[in-house]
Write a structure and sequence with these properties.
380 residues, alpha/beta, eight-stranded mixed sheet, three-stranded antiparallel sheet, 13 strands, 18% strand, globular
Amino acid sequence: MKFSKSIAVLLTAAMLAAMAGCSDNEENPSGTADKTSAPTQQTAGKENTVNNESTNAPETEAATRQNTDAPVTEAPGDVPDSYREDGESGIKIIGRNGHYMGLMGCWGTFENCERYAAAVNKAAAALPGVKVYSMVIPTSSEFYVPEDITGFTSSQKEKIDHTADKLSGVANVDVYSALKAHTDEYIYTRTDHHWQPLGAYYAAEVFAKAAGVADKFADISEYKKVTKEGYMGSLYNYSKSEKLNSDPEPFTMYISPNDSALKTTYYDTSFQNGKESDLFVSRDAGAYYCSFLGSDDRIAKIETDCANGKTLVVMKESYGNGLIPFLTQCYQTIYVCDVRYFDLNAIQFCKDVNADDLLFATCTYTPAGPNVKEVERVVG
């Protein structure tokens, strides 16, 4: 199916505006509302409701493979790197390293990047005792679009650099360089719009150095590595590509070395009605990207055995979720809030919880695209 550039841009923008990840809200599969989750992620967001009886996600069909509307076929074997397919909704399917890979374009504007920078600058100015950081995370299309595909996506590096140039009183966390150095590793999913936790590990390491807590940051070898096969994410649901559907992938998560010492409490988006549960809501990775933190539409408080007295607040969308398991040895307390669902003022929240550090962690499209208004809203 062929799309004109203008139609593909509009459809991709609509989907990226809806880039939610693991949320209980799965209405509006057209992706036209900024807060709506992509109509793609495992229903683990619904299955992994927080409760005190069980911390493991149920082994449902949806949790193990979300595409129940399409037949599962044999693995494709060697896929030529020259393979190209135009899927529905402007998704590109390419061949890479013997497998099919889905790619979603990322657009946005420099004006929105400036709006984002102004919002985080405002937070820094209002919180003189808090160190504020900005981490803008490139999506997979920045690194993996072949040279022969043109007009499909815009430069994320230009957006990221422009955002960084407009920061004042805010520390820019350059994860672009770290991720670019590891693009031969499995740092992004082939079938979903998220990164793999390994990519989040490299980004978390950069943040730990910037925040002065690198001495407590654990090497990846110290984590318990858990892999679940059969992952098929959002990019099949968007593209309807049978080639992509024929080639499910593994999803690997890393359980924190101090896992047994963690106490995680989940609150509603007004920071009320707390219930203790587990940071790793699916310990066999059966909920894939929702296996840690579960749903986006709540606030998580993680108390650790790191006795440095430091408190971190993370304002994020779903890309930021992947960072959290790698920071549990660096801070005594971590609060995780999603800018699309957070019902409070971020500045006042940081004051109320005595934050030392505030990290804004999102993929490129949040500062560059329509979701910038959510960052502006939570800053107030």
